[in-house]
Amino acid sequence: MHFSKNLTEARLDKSQLVTSAPFVSLNSSIEAKESARVLRMRQNRRKTIDVLKVVHPPPRRSVPRHLQRYLQSLSSHEALLYAKREIEHAPLVGNVGNDSYLYAPVFRNNSIFKRSYELMEMILKVYIYRDGKKPIFHQPRLNGIYASEGWFMKLMEANREFVTKEPERAHLFYLPYSSRQLELALYVRNSHNLRPLSKFLRDYVNMIASKYPFWNRTHGSDHFLVACHDWGPFITTEHVELKDIAIKALCNADLKENFVAGKDVSLPETAIRIASKPLRNIGGGIRVSVRPKLLKHWLNKDADMRIYGPLSRRVSKSMSYVRHMKSSKYCICPMGYEVNSPRIVEAIYYECVPVIIADNFVLPLSEVLEWNAFSVTVAEIDIPKLKEILLAIPLKRYLQMLMNVKMVQKHFLWNPNPMRYDLFHMILHSIWYNRLNQIQIPQS
C-alpha cells in the first residue's frame, strides 16, 4: 500500500491541508442520543475551555536574595544535588489559584513537576558549543515533519534565561546539530548507508572532547542532543559514550533502538508547514507500517469506523482532514516506518482523543505527563478489535479524556516567543529532569 503524496487543499478550512492519515469517528447510529449529548457537552465545554488558550501562565516565582546567593555559591554538581533533594521533598500543591494553570490530572505528579520546573528556572544554565559549521550545526530547519529539532535549536540559541557563555557555570551542554541537515548534507540517496552520518557525529564529539574538558569529566552524561529524524538513534552508534551515556532527545523514542528510558527524552514530533506560523497548516508525514493492517481490517468495513488511506476527492470536498479530526471522538495515531508520528500532536491540537498504535514507543514528555489521562494506547496485535476497545470506553471516561486533551494542549505549542510551560520549556525540563535522575545523592 502506498499513500498518496498529493495534498488536497481543505475546502472548509483554508488554513489547513488534507493529509493521508487513517482516523476514526465513532458516532454510531446506535448511539445517536449519546452522540447528540456529547456534541452539546463539547460545545458547552468549548465556550469555557477556549478561554484558557489565551490565558498566560503565572509569572515566575521570585527567589529570595539569600537563596540566590546560596545557589550561586554552589558548584554545578552541588546545585544539582540541591535540586534533587528539593524535588524529593516537594510540597503538595492543589489545583486552585495560580496552580490551576497546571491541570493536575494530566500530570503523573503535579507537585513534583511544579517543584522541579521552579528549580529549573532558578538553577539551570546551558552551555551551547559554538563549534560546528552550518548547515549541519546552528542552522535549524523550521518546517516539515522533523521541525521539532529545528524549533528547539532556534529557541535555545536565542534564549537568555537559561543559556550561559561561561561553560564552568553550566549544568548541561548542548550539541547544536540538526539530524535533518546532516542527512541532507551527507547521505547518498538510495545508498542505504548511514555510517558516514554516524562517523561524522562521532568525529565531532571526539573533537569537542579533545578541545574542552567538559565531556571527559562526566563521559558526556551532562551533554545532550535533540534529533527528530527517524535515523536519530542510529547516528549516535559510532560513539559509545554518545549512544549510552549522553542524553538523547529523540522523536524516534523506540526502546528497541538505543533509547534508554529515564535517561533519554521522547521528543514530540510536530509537523510544521509554514515556519513563520508554526501552529497553522499542520500536516503529517506520509509513512507506512501498521497502516496497511489498519486498512485491511477497517477500510470500508464499518460506517462507524472511518478509516482512510488517501482522502478521495469526494471525501475531501465534503470535509477536510482537519474537520474530520475535530468532529471525531477518537483519532487513530499509528506508527510509521518508525514508532513516532506527528499525528499524536495533531490530535491534541485538534482536540480529538489520540489512539496510539505503536509498540515499544516511549510517549513524549512521559517523565511528567500522564498519557492515560488523555489518550488510548492499543497494541498492534489488537487492531482487529479496535472498534470493540473504543466502544467499551464509558462516556464519562471519554469526556474526561477530551477535557484533558484540551488542558494539555498548551504544553505542546511552539510559541515563537516562548512562554512558561510551552513545548520548548517542557522539552528542556525533561532533559533537566532526566539529568537529575542520573545524580546519586550521597548517603549521610
Description:
The protein is an alpha/beta fold and 444 residues long. Among the domains are: 124-272 and 418-438, no CATH class; 292-411, Rossmann fold (3-Layer(aba) Sandwich), CATH 3.40.50. It has helices at 32-53, 65-73, 76-88, 110-123, 147-157, 179-186, 195-211, 214-218, 232-235, 240-244, 291-298, 313-318, 321-327, 343-349, 386-391, 395-408, 423-437, and strands at 126-128, 172-174, 223-227, 247-250, 265-266, 330-334, 353-357, 376-377. The strands form two sheets. Strands 1-2-3-4-5 form a five-stranded parallel sheet. The chain has a three-stranded parallel sheet with strand order 6-7-8. Strand 1, helix 5 and strand 2 form a beta-alpha-beta unit. The longest helix is centred in the first third of the chain and has 22 residues, at 32-53. The protein is globular. Mean pLDDT is 82; it is low at 1-34, 46-53 and 281-290. One of its GO terms (molecular function) is glycosyltransferase activity. Residues 124-390 form the Exostosin GT47 domain.
Helices and strands, with pairings:
Blueprint: H1 32-53, H2 65-73, H3 76-88, H4 110-123, E1 126-128, H5 147-157, E2 172-174, H6 179-186, H7 195-211, H8 214-218, E3 223-227, H9 232-235, H10 240-244, E4 247-250, E5 265-266, H11 291-298, H12 313-318, H13 321-327, E6 330-334, H14 343-349, E7 353-357, E8 376-377, H15 386-391, H16 395-408, H17 423-437
Helix pairs in contact: 1-16, 3-4
